[in-house]
Amino acid sequence: MNEQLVNIICxxxxxxxxxLGVLLSNRNSTDKMxxxxxxxxxxxxxxxxxxxxxxxxxxNFAKRVPVLEExxxxxxxxxxxxxxx
Length: 85
Known about the structure:
Layout: H1 2-84
């Protein structure tokens, strides 16, 4: 009976140690995955900010180009009028 009790106690202690190891391992894996996800999110946020800046810059040019084209046409008309006179 005494030997069976010792075996049960050893089994319980071993099981507890294995459970503790699994829990710690899972926690470390989760922490590492969360850290990697935060890093990936920071990179994504930076890329989105850069793309937003580029789109704003492009939109600014898109607004200015028609104005420039009109100014060029006006200069061309003025140049043609000077040649004709």
